[in-house]
Amino acid sequence: MKLWTVVLAVVVAISMAGLAEAKGNKAGKGGKAEIVKGKIVSVATGGSSMVIKAKKSQGQTTLATNAKTKVKGAATSVADLKAGEKVKAKVKNGVAKSIKVKAAKAKNAGKKSVKSGGKKAGKRGGKNGRK
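User: That's the sequence. What structure does it adopt?
Assistant: C-alpha cells below.
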C-alpha cells in the first residue's frame, strides 16, 4: 500500500511540473507587446538589429529586426533608419514588430527672424525701429 502511495505521489508531482512548464511556455508566446520610445543610437549593417536610447531611465536597448518588421513614418524600411532619429517600437519577444519613425523637426520652424522686422527688431533699434 505504501508503495502505491509513493508511486502516485511521484506521478502527480511530475504531472504538475509538466503543466507548469506548458503554462509558462504559452505565456511567453502570447505575451503582450512592449512599447519602446527613444532615439536610435546605431543600426547594424543590413538592419538586423538596432540600439535605442530609451526616453525613460531604461538606458540603451538592443532590438532585433526581421523581414516581418514594419516601418512607418519618415523611413520606409529598416535599412533607411539612421542614428539620431526618434522612434516608437512595438517589441514582442525581443523582436521589433513595428517601428514608427518621427520626422525630424526643421530648425527655426515657426520662429520669427530678427531681420524679418518682427517685434524684436523694433525694440532693438534695428532697421525697422528707426524713425
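The first strand starts at residue 34 and ends at 43.
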